[in-house]
Design goal:
Blueprint (H helix, E strand, L loop, with lengths): L16 H10 L2 E6 L5 H11 L7 E6 L2 H14 L8 E5 L2 E2 L7 E5 H10 L6 E6 L7 H16 L4 E6 L4 H7 L5 E4 L6 E5 L13 H15 L4 E5 L3 H12 L2 H5 L3 E6 L5 H5 L8 E6 L12 E6 L2 E3 L2 E3 L4 E3 L2 E3 L2 H8 L8 E5 L3 H6 L13 H10 L16 H13 L3 E3 L7 E3 L1 H8 L4 H12 L3 H12 L5
Parallel strand pairs: 1-7, 1-8, 2-5, 2-6, 3-5, 6-7, 9-18, 10-12, 10-13, 11-12, 13-18
Antiparallel strand pairs: 3-4, 14-17, 15-16, 19-20
Helix pairs in contact: 2-3, 4-5, 7-8, 13-14, 13-15, 15-16, 16-17
Length: 471
């Protein structure tokens, strides 16, 4: 354990250090809302440590994505002078770097949820920080419900809910009017420019890729030096932008250019390239994987397409689709906050100010967009009880729950209990389906293929059906 914990003086959260530590000591649950760049992700675990937590158990800090969990762990370890990462470490899928000496543990929310299946009380932790809670993925909503139940079971457990764009009143009510602390963002000014696609004649509309390349080229040619972060909706768009920027006349206008793609399907080594030091000007073209927690060093400019893939389930057709849709204002603000971390920044939005003002305030939580059959399957596997009784922040509609159970019954994933316990329970097939990271219908296909000895052929079809871009 370090004798003294230091906080970077340039971070806004450092100025509220004592207030936050006092609140952690005085309250079981704390809601922390801080603008992007305020230092929440890196400094809150250290404040928990200074508040006396982490002496016998660990302090957990969840991240929505593996690249955030690993990069933030490395950053915090460096700040604490922990060169061999003995005190600060991380756990992601297929990689557990924690040791007996680990006191601060960064992990994906999916990993913490997996731990809750074998240790419902999460007894190895003194404090649990749910970071980027505004993303409201199923994993985060499950964790919020589990923590709500743990408040009474483990009164000594400290819980911190943190995000840049948080509906603080809703989260506070969920945890019995927990106190809220608001932290301002960094003081570097960010200039927002609106650059909607120019109106052209019929059949001559400019594609989002062409519009993006034009704006990036203009930044390179006419703005002071600084790295650029570009947000696109799909892998295909990213690769087209990267290809356009790597070749053509933009190379002739720039003394040096390093163009890097970033999306979830890349390997950890490929994703980590964005943190490397390059002598050339760096352009990172990313999906919303770079929207939260990840601070790419040197970013002075952000180009925001205003689009993202957002999954939604059609209960009538029983299909999940991943259309490209406009992002919410909260997501747009998150993207803007990625620049201006090292100096004055510029955010170029490829849409009008009117479009920004008309956007939804927050992205709808995944629980209201998801296939409830998949949610119910996971809940039964995790032994979380019936969805109608689980303390969800936004409970699903009773009709959706009924339809979800009906689909699972058709797939033979649930059955009446043989020991006369009330309600439906997972069948043998249902338990296997819950272990597969697939839509229940596709998981059922795979199990049936194994029985009919055509597993190799069907796995190829299942893989094609389960990815975002089959093309």
């Amino acid at each position: 354990m370090p004798n003294a914990i230091h906080y970077p003086p340039g971070l806004p959260i450092s100025g509220q250090r004592q207030e936050i530590i006092d609140k952690i000591k005085a309250h079981q649950v704390l809601i922390v809302a801080g603008e992007t760049g305020s230092g929440k992700t890196t400094q809150l675990p250290k404040m928990c440590l200074e508040a006396g937590l982490g002496a016998e158990r660990m302090i957990a800090c969840t991240q929505p994505r593996r690249i955030a969990a690993t990069s933030v762990a490395v950053r915090v370890a460096a700040e604490m002078g922990d060169a061999d990462m003995a005190l600060v470490s991380y756990r992601i899928r297929f990689a557990d770097r924690t040791k007996k000496s680990t006191r601060i543990k960064f992990l994906t929310d999916g990993m913490l949820l997996a731990e809750a299946t074998t240790d419902r009380r999460l007894s190895r932790y003194d404090a649990i920080i749910i970071d980027e809670a505004h993303e409201r993925s199923l994993n985060i909503d499950f964790l919020l419900g589990i923590l709500k139940q743990l408040v009474k079971l483990r009164p000594e457990l400290k819980i911190i809910i943190s995000s840049a764009t948080l509906d603080t009143e809703k989260f506070s009510r969920h945890f019995d009017n927990a106190p809220v602390i608001s932290i301002p963002g960094k003081t570097f000014p960010i200039e927002v420019r609106y650059c909607p696609a120019p109106e052209t004649g019929p059949g001559a509309e400019q594609s989002i890729v062409e519009q993006t390349v034009t704006v990036v080229t203009d930044l390179i040619c006419h703005e002071p030096a600084g790295d650029i972060l570009v947000f696109m909706a799909t892998e295909r768009d990213i690769l087209e932008v990267v290809e356009a920027l790597q070749g053509g006349e933009i190379r002739d206008k720039s003394t040096g250019l390093m163009v890097l793609p970033l999306f979830g399907r890349l390997s950890g080594r490929e994703q980590a390239q964005i943190f490397a030091d390059f002598s050339e000007r760096k352009i990172v073209v990313a999906t919303n994987v770079a929207e939260t927690s990840i601070t790419v060093p040197g970013i002075r400019y952000v180009v925001d397409s205003g689009l993202a893939r957002i999954s939604s389930y059609n209960p009538r057709a029983r299909t999940t689709k991943l259309p490209v849709q406009p992002i919410s204002r909260a997501s747009a603000d998150q993207r803007r906050g990625r620049c201006g971390r090292v100096g004055p920044g510029v955010c170029v939005r490829l849409y009008s100010e009117e479009e920004y003002l008309n956007k939804e305030a927050f992205t709808p939580p995944e629980i209201v967009r998801a296939n409830l059959a998949e949610v119910i399957l996971r809940m039964l596997d995790l032994r979380l009880g019936h969805p109608a009784q689980f303390p969800f922040l936004d409970p699903p509609h009773p009709r959706s729950i009924k339809d979800g159970f009906a689909l699972l019954h058709e797939l033979a994933a649930v059955e009446e209990s043989r020991d006369h316990r009330p309600g439906l329970h997972l069948s043998k097939q249902g338990r296997l389906m819950a272990r597969l990271p697939l839509d229940p219908c596709i998981a059922r296909m795979v199990l049936e293929a194994r029985e009919r000895r055509v597993l190799h052929q069907v796995i190829i079809i299942a893989a094609a059906l389960s990815i975002q871009e089959p093309r």
